[in-house]
Amino acid sequence: MATPHETLILDRTTSTQDEVWARFESKPLLVVARLQTRGRGRSGSRWSNAPRALAASVGVRPHWPPPSWPLLTLVAGVAALRALGDPVRGLTLKWPNDLMRGPLKLGGVLTEASGDTVVAGWGANLFWPDAPEGTGGLFDADPGPEAGVEIAQRWVEEFLLLLAGEAGDWPRDEYRRRCSTLGRAVTWVPDGKGTAVDISPDGGLVVETDTGRRTLTSAAVTELRDHGFIRTPSAGDD
């Protein structure tokens, strides 16, 4: 059963994240904008929107313990793939927060927390015929002005459904199956390189390095780059 939530649809805003922070009270609040002029990504980076884009954020008060909240970025990514469904194929998740098709970045997830509240945001390029190098759109043709609103509604329903469970029950296996980072050589800022081999129960990226296995957290890694497929990942096996 879908968790009740309120929805606010805006034609234009600077940031759906800021809108939620300004308006959220207690009931989950979804804000969707047809145009977002100053969206932001992870570590404060600027997010550039396609001509037809999705910009959505939801405010919640999770019942999960705060130490588990970093998982919500990964959970929001799984919810995004579920919301897009079968019509959009070949999508993967790059740890911790990017939506990809092959080498092209199509969107990203951002979660922010303050006090007892978390705001999860999702920005995605729906249609971008002349996308900059390294980016792309989800659809080959313009899906129309209401597509972002419809997809955002499906996303928030999936996200809230997952959030209604317990932190220990988050869809780790589903994330691992869809994570394109696994099995690839990676380097990260500030200080390392290795091969990504698994996603830990608390959402960290497990990497094999010259000195042994290490688990990276999204809070400690400001940038992650992958450098090619190394071997068939076996992360789905415990």
Shape: globular
SSE ordering: EHEEHEEEEHHEEEEE
The proportion of residues forming helix, as a percent range, comes to: 10-25%
Strand content: 25-35%
Distance between the terminal alpha carbons, to the nearest Å? Answer: 31 Å
Instruction: Tally the helices.
Output: 4
What Rg, in angstroms, do the CA atoms define?
A: 17 Å
Q: Structural class of the helix and strand makeup?
A: alpha+beta
Short structural description:
The chain has 238 residues and is an alpha+beta fold. The protein has 4 helices and 12 strands, in the order βαββαββββααβββββ. A hairpin with a 2-residue loop joins strand 8 (184-189) and strand 9 (192-199).
Description:
With 238 residues, this protein is α+β, with helices and mostly antiparallel strands. The chain contains four helices and twelve strands, in the order E-H-E-E-H-E-E-E-E-H-H-E-E-E-E-E. The strands form two sheets. The chain has a seven-stranded mixed β-sheet with strand order 1-2-3-7-6-5-4, with helices on both faces. A hairpin with a 3-residue loop joins strand 4 and strand 5 (98-101). Helix 2 (71-84) crosses helix 3. The chain is globular and about 50 Å long. The chain starts with 5 loop residues before the first strand and ends in a 9-residue tail after the last strand. 38% of the residues are buried. Residues 230-238 have low confidence and may be disordered.
